[in-house]
Amino acid sequence: MPGPASDVAAAKDGWRDYDHLQPKSPILACALEAFEEQGYHATTVRDIARRVGVTVPALYYHYENKQALLVELLMSSMQALLDRCVAAVAEAGDEPVARFSALVECVVLYMSRGGSRGLLDSEIRSLEPENRRTYVALRDRLEVLLQEIIDDGVVAGDFATEYPEEARRAVLTACNAVARWYHHDGPVPPEDMARRYVPICLGAVGYRPRK
User: Fold this and answer.
1) What's the CATH number of domain 4-204, 3.55.40.10, 2.40.50.100, 1.10.357.10, 3.20.20.480?
2) The pTM is what?
C-alpha cells in the first residue's frame, strides 16, 4: 500500500502506473503484514517492533500507538485511490461516459493491483470514532465524484437509471469487492479485469449509446 507522497506522484505521472505498492516505511510495511496475518486487535506493538527489528520505545518515537499505524495505512490507501481517480477522470475529458469508464477502470485496477488490501479494509471498524469520521469523509469524496458523473450522464441522456444514488452504491460496492477475491495467479491480468468491469458497471447505470 503506497504512502501519500509516492502515490500522488504516481497519479500525476500516470494513474495506471503501479511501480510502488508497498509502504516506504519499514514500520508501516511490518504493521501492514501483521494486521493482515493476525488482525488489528490480535496484533501488539511489541510484535510489530519485533518484525521491524527495533525496540518498542523506538517504534513509539515514530508512531504514537497502534491506532496511529492503522490510521496511516488506511488513510494513505484511500488518499492514493482518490488521487488516482481524480487523475483518471481529468484525463478522460468532459463526456460523462468517458469519465465514468475511467473511474471504474481506475478503481478496479487499484483493487486488483493490491493498492487496497481486502483484509485491511475490514479493519475500518477498528478505527476510533474520530479517526473513522476522518476516513469516511475522505471516502465520501470519491462517492461524490462518481455521483456527479452519474448525474451528468443522466442529464445528458447517456444513463437511463431511475435510481442514480443506488446505482452509485452498487458500482462502488462491486469495484471495491475486487480486492477481496482477485488473485494475481488467476487467468485474467489486472488491466483486463479493470476493462471488463467497465461495461458491467455501465449496465448498472443504464448506459444507452447515443444515436
Assistant:
1) 1.10.357.10
2) 0.87
